[in-house]
C-alpha cells in the first residue's frame, strides 16, 4: 500500500470473528483479537493510518435469530 502512496487503510472489525456466538458470556475468540492487534501493529509499522468500521454486515447468527438483528432495540 505504501508503494502506491496510500497513507491510510479502512477495514471492518468482524463481530463474528471476535465473539462468534454473539454473546460475550460464551467467550471471546482470542485468535480474532490477535488478528486485529497484529493488523494494527503492521499498519503502524508502515505508517498507515487505520480507519476502523465497527459494524459492516456480519451480525452473529445467534443475535439475528434471537432478536432479529439490528431491527431490535435490544441490539442497538
From TrEMBL:
Pfam families: Glyco_hydro_1. InterPro entries: GH, Glyco_hydro_1. It comes from the Eukaryota. GO terms for molecular function: beta-glucosidase activity. One of its GO terms (biological process) is carbohydrate metabolic process. Belongs to the glycosyl hydrolase 1 family. PANTHER family: GLYCOSYL HYDROLASE (PTHR10353), LINAMARASE (PTHR10353:SF323). This is Beta-glucosidase. It comes from Linum trigynum. The lineage of its organism: Eukaryota, Viridiplantae, Streptophyta, Embryophyta, Tracheophyta.
Amino acid at each position: 500500500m505504501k508503494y502506491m502512496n496510500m497513507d491510510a487503510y479502512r477495514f471492518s472489525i468482524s463481530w463474528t470473528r471476535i465473539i462468534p456466538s454473539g454473546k460475550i458470556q460464551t467467550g471471546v475468540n482470542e485468535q480474532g483479537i490477535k488478528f486485529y492487534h497484529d493488523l494494527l501493529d503492521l499498519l503502524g509499522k508502515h505508517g498507515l493510518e487505520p480507519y476502523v468500521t465497527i459494524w459492516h454486515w456480519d451480525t452473529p447468527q445467534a443475535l439475528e435469530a434471537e432478536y432479529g438483528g439490528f431491527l431490535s432495540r435490544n441490539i442497538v
